[in-house]
Please model this.
Amino acid sequence: MTDRARQIQILAAARTLLEQEGPEALTMRRLAGRVGITAPSLYKHFPDKSSVVNALADAMLRETAQALEAAESASPGSFPALAAAYRAHALAHPHLYRLTTARPHPQELEERAAAPLFRALSHDEARARAAWAFAHGMVVMELNGRFPTPADVTAAWTAGITAFAASGL
Model:
C-alpha cells in the first residue's frame, strides 16, 4: 500500500471513529487498531493526533463548500437554499462539524466555503458573515440540544431566515 493510500485509509478510519463515537474515541491507539497497524506505525503517516484532526476538519470544510456550491447551482442567489444546505450537511456530521468549526483553517478553504453565500448576498461581506454566524449558531444550538422541541428549532430557523430575507438578503 502506498503512503498516500495508507493516509486515506487512516483518515477514513478516523472519520468513522469520530462520527460513530465522538471526539473522545479518536485516539491514536484506537485509530491504529482500526487500520490494523501499531500506534508507532501510525506516526509514520501523521506526526500527531492534531495533524489527523486538521486533515479531517479540512475535508469537512471542502465538503461544506461542495454542498453550498451544489445548492447555489440548484438555486442561484438563494440565501434560504444555502442556509438549508449548510444546516443539512452540518446535522448529518455533528461530531465532524463541531471539530471543524472549533479551529482555524487555511484561508483558501474558508473562502471557498463562504463564496456561494458571499455571491448570494450581493458580495456584501458584512451581511455574509452575519448570515454565516446565524446559520452556525443555530446549528450549534440544535446539535447541543438547546431547543425544547424540534418544532422550536424549526420556528427559530424559519424566523431567522425570514428576517434575513426581509432585510434584503
